[in-house]
Amino acid sequence: MGFMDSLKSMFGKAKNTAQAHSEDLDNAIGKGVDKAKDKMDPHMDKFDGAIDKVADKVDDVTQGKASGMIDKGTNAAKDAVDKLGKQNP
User: Fold this and answer.
1) Which residues contact 38 (CB under 8 A, 6 or more apart)?
2) Which of 51, 66, 72, 83 is most buried (most C-beta within 10 Å)?
């Protein structure tokens, strides 16, 4: 058995193992995300204020040189939080 055959065999076993456990992993990740959403839900209204505070601090530290990028990131973060809130009514 050559090196390439050994490599193919090793990757084949890894692929089979991953496929066998992928459903378990998906379930575990899903449960973790649901748990995080449940914990965040009562505090969704506080996220926008926290995002603004962080953005203002970063803007101060950079002396306004990155204001455009900070605004863009702030908007993206707020959109992500809003989207997350809508997924978990």
Assistant:
1) 88
2) 51
Query: Residue 88: which H helix or E strand, with range?
Result: none
Rounded Cα–Cα distance for residues 56 and 76 (Å): 15
Could you tell me the CA-to-CA distances from 4 to 1, 13, 60, 88 in Å, in that order? 8, 14, 56, 48
Instruction: Using a cut of 0.85, tell me whether the model's pTM lies above it.
Output: no
The residue behind tokens 């058995």 is: 1
> How far apart, in whole angstroms, are the C-alpha atoms of residue 1 and residue 48?
60
Tell me if residue 15 falls in helix, strand or coil. Answer: helix
- Per the CB < 8 A criterion, the answer to whether 39 and 85 are in contact is no
In this predicted model, what pLDDT tens digit does every residue of 34-44 receive, in sequence order? Answer: 787 777 777 77
User: Distance between CA atoms of 77 and 10, rounded to whole angstroms?
Assistant: 41
